[in-house]
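Z., the sequence and structure:
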Amino acid sequence: MDLLFLGTSAGAPTKARNVSATALLEATGKRWYLIDCGEGTQHRLLHTPLSTQDLGGIFITHVHGDHCLGLPGLLASASMNGRRQPLDVVLPRALHEWLRISLAVTDSHLSFDLRLLPVEDFNGWHNAAVTVSTVTLSHRVPSVGYLFEERCPEPRLDSVRLDAEGVPRGPLWGTLAKGLAVSHQGRELQAADYLQPGRAARRIIVCGDNDTPELLAEAAAGADVLVHEATFTQPAVERSGVTYGHSTAAAVARFAQAAGVRNLVLTHFSARYQADNRRSPSIDDVRQEAALHYAGNLTLAVDLQRYHLGREGVLLPVD
């Protein structure tokens, strides 16, 4: 599984960073999923190999504009580019009518079925490749994190069961291995019943805004990657006395260390933290603060950078 960051800025864009949007790519390379869709997300996509034709689903963490205002434009462009497959969008109920009205008043007629699913009633979502669940977070408005877990990665045939049931080796096995059903002795055999995962499933959590990282304690246990906002550094919060419902780099790092998170990715940085480390405050201040409290594999997300979670379980940037 890969992560590709389309926006890592909090609240407002900067010259170097757009507002929140994160793409999660299947290990198969067939589909990708979008978590949050701030204004300008579709422009960021033009600088990547990702296509809305291969978009498997959209998941919005909360109602704030820097996490959702890019939806109408992205959906309209997907339609103009010829998408035909239905698309599920999981988002707060309050945004459903807004999205419908936005499309209607701009005369945007989609070429595909748009299925809006309220996150308040969310009981999980899955397809053949991934299962998605939510974690409730703490922010000024209701906010969630999304946990993506692979389903039967690198599937292999259960040869013991097939032999035991007398299914002859050959074309039938080959068809099942492709994930297709076959008929044998009057029975229809479903591929899912005869496939086993070839390796452990990977689990990645991508969070919305959250001022209480400890809410992730249960979900983070066993997760391979935690993507969490670090809007401020601790000194900035101490000076202002307010967090606006966000976390500091120190708070997230302390939690990740205590929870045993192997790969921590920080994102959603306040526009005050500049890319040029010679100026203050800078992104390097965020990195240094987190590194004081976390000894695992620390990543500060960069716009348009892709990261790969390898077999060794380490998340690394892709050249």
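The first strand starts at residue 2 and ends at 7. The two ends are 16 Å apart (CA to CA).

Let me know what you think.
H.
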